[in-house]
Amino acid sequence: MTAAAGGERKVYSVSGFNRGIARVLGRLPAVWIEGEVTELRRNEAWATVFLTLQDPRTGATLKVTIARRTFDRLDLGLEEGEAVQVEGRAELYELRGELGLRASRIERVGLGGHLVALERLKRQLAAEGLFAPERKRRLPRVPRAVGILTGADAAARGDLVATIGRRFPAARVVVAETRVQGRGAPAAIVASLRALAAHAEVDVVVLARGGGSFEDLLPFSDERVVRAVAAAPVPVVSAVGHEQDTPLCDHAADLRASTPTAAARLVVPDERELRERLDAARAVLARGAKGALERARSSLARDRERLDRAPALLVERKRAGLEALAGRLQALSPQRTLARGYAIVRTDNEIVRSGADLEAGNRVDVELAHGGFGALVEETRR
């Protein structure tokens, strides 16, 4: 630093002072500094990414810059509020006299920030009903095609395809390989899921990814991915990570599988077991048909017996009816009346019903139950 003349004083210009301090700071070694990320700014048009580190205990802040290419290569997917450790060298922005840190490396510290953010997102999506049990759909019994969304993970994809082929050789598999880790993974997963679900024959989709660190599985907890799983037009099975891992897409999926192999057992039936069940069903149907035939044969035999007896029964019913009518006619017959001691008196023209119809001297004919006689009326009574 060059001092201006000033008697006994050494007077420096602001620029000279800042430049001198910058040179001193430049000789300091690289250091690691820990803090929470705030004011993160990245733009494709900028060569530098800007952020601020804040001490959560005191509120003290430090400006940090890092080359955009370096930042992108780290592929951290940082969000504000996360705790990080930054390696870099102290620098002074001479024009403004601002102290900062030129970073060369950034590492995430712990998972607290992510866990808090995920829990908050989980509560929000649950409140919207995306995880509700009544939204879950049944998987098709025998899908026309199974869609598999996976990354460059030969083990997960291989286990799925091999298990599906072994269980149900006739099943068709449609594989969509996409990015499932790091920056850009959520958008890639969403696009691939939509493409698989739109396939004309895909009736169910499996999200498959092998195990990994918490950070590796974060794309499957991204809000965009979770909403895409919930909105998929076909059922979705989540087979992401190991059994102890629970990304948010597990809650939105129609079913969760602990492993890709378990997912394969969910989406297609076992052909051997299916054939055994079909054989058993066929046997039940055969027994049912035989039983129905026997019941129909017995019913026909009973009907034939009834038909054979029908004419005789009809004759008996008719005879009984005639006998009843004959009894009624006999009860009404004049002969029955005569048999009880009554007689029928006739004149030449009609039956005599009243003494007023006769006069003394008239001749009448008297009919009895057996025979009859003629008589001469001597007296009439009215």
Write the layout of secondary structure elements.
Elements: H1 14-26, E1 31-41, E2 48-54, E3 61-67, H2 68-74, E4 83-93, E5 98-108, H3 112-127, E6 145-150, H4 154-167, E7 172-177, H5 185-197, E8 202-209, H6 223-231, E9 236-240, H7 248-252, E10 255-256, H8 260-267, H9 271-332, H10 334-339, E11 344-346, E12 363-367, E13 372-376
Parallel strand pairs: 3-5, 6-7, 6-8, 8-9, 9-10
Antiparallel strand pairs: 1-2, 1-4, 2-3, 4-5, 11-12, 12-13
Q: Can you walk through the features of this model?
A:
By secondary structure, this protein is α/β, with parallel strands linked by helices. It folds into four domains: 14-110, Beta Barrel (OB fold (Dihydrolipoamide Acetyltransferase, E2P)), CATH 2.40.50.140; 114-269, 3-Layer(aba) Sandwich (Rossmann fold); 271-331; 336-376, no CATH class. The chain contains ten helices and 13 strands. It has helices spanning 14-26, 68-74, 112-127, 154-167, 185-197, 223-231, 248-252, 260-267, 271-332, 334-339; strands spanning 31-41, 48-54, 61-67, 83-93, 98-108, 145-150, 172-177, 202-209, 236-240, 255-256, 344-346, 363-367, 372-376. The strands form three sheets. It has a five-stranded mixed barrel. A five-stranded parallel sheet has the order 7-6-8-9-10, with helices on both faces. Helix 4 packs parallel to helix 8 and helix 5 packs parallel to helix 6.
Primary descriptors:
single chain, 382 residues, alpha/beta, OB fold (Dihydrolipoamide Acetyltransferase, E2P), Rossmann fold, 4 domains, 5-stranded mixed β-barrel, 5-stranded parallel beta sheet, 13 strands, 23% strand
